[in-house]
């Protein structure tokens, strides 16, 4: 049995013996699932590039695109160029365009590649000079690029719109204008301020319940142009309440990385589909659980997925916007990339204590694909931090 010396919260060191048996890896198809499931995928940085990591991101395109194929092989869709890919947090619009272009080219090589792309306004610097017309033009540029590549749109929340909007009606105007132009139904994305503090007050209200009323009105007025909405508020009560009020043709895509198991399973009044950053990190388990649910085995679904929830809650703990560090660290532990480096140097955004607890929880969740490799790589990180 593999074991490793890990730091404890009291600064002591103790031997941790791994107990988790990895979930067997199996190829699956989206047709095996009774839910639509997207994984918001991360990008793999290029640590050998001659660049300034805090200023200019460098991406290992081969490793990044291999990871997309891996998700497709598990039957999962890819939510591309989202915040999990450090969009607006290290990855700019110019890099996002290249990512979208390359990912769409890869998707064309398969007949089972479900993929959709984030389109927002992140190339427009927020400020008092920005008008609603500027926001609309920025959305039009990015939506036009995605659709010009033949892709489906995930309409991302806009930092610039928060500053430019004076009333909730301004949100309705901007979204109505963009939705009237799209070629096929989009997924709306309401990203809470716990993920991006610059989005506080979205839909014109600091109160989430009041904001939900505005969002629901926008959806009702444009239902034919909306496939679904992903909300990332980390509140299962609000998600369920909103889900029950959506038009019949509009899906709820859970973005709740704290409560996804019960939200996907649903209740007598309905269920949520999924668009989750944690599915990047737990893809084999998520795939197996969704397949079990597709077979009607809800008990097996929970047996597989529930142990991943404590891991996810830890990865997405406050400050939640640093969750990407945990996602990439787990990819490193699992041998899906050769290094623990990130755009913007965000591998330093979490403490060694945080990463040590992530290791323990990943073992308990059965998501360490090769325990011996994970131990070896964790030891390298510990050594860099002076722990041996």
Give an overview of the whole structure.
This protein is of the alpha/beta class and 388 residues long. It has 15 helices and 10 strands. β3, α1 (61-73) and β4 form a beta-alpha-beta unit. α1 crosses α2, α10 runs antiparallel to α11 (298-305) and α14 (352-364) runs antiparallel to α15. Helix content is 41%, strand content 12%.
Keywords:
388 residues; TIM Barrel; 8-stranded parallel β-barrel; two-stranded antiparallel sheet; 12% strand
Number of domains: 1
Helix/strand/pairing category: alpha/beta
CATH superfamily: Aldolase class I
Any low-confidence stretches, pLDDT <50, length ≥5?
none
Question: How many strand elements?
Answer: 10
The coarse overall form would be globular
Question: Share of helix among residues?
Answer: 40-55%
Reconstruct the topology from this structure.
Blueprint: E1 3-7, E2 13-17, E3 37-40, H1 61-73, E4 77-80, H2 93-107, E5 115-119, H3 132-148, E6 153-155, H4 159-164, H5 168-179, E7 186-191, H6 208-221, E8 226-232, H7 236-243, E9 251-254, H8 260-265, E10 273-276, H9 278-281, H10 283-294, H11 298-305, H12 308-315, H13 323-333, H14 352-364, H15 371-384
Parallel strand pairs: 3-4, 3-10, 4-5, 5-6, 6-7, 7-8, 8-9, 9-10
Antiparallel strand pairs: 1-2
Helix pairs in contact: 1-2, 3-5, 5-6, 10-11, 12-14, 14-15
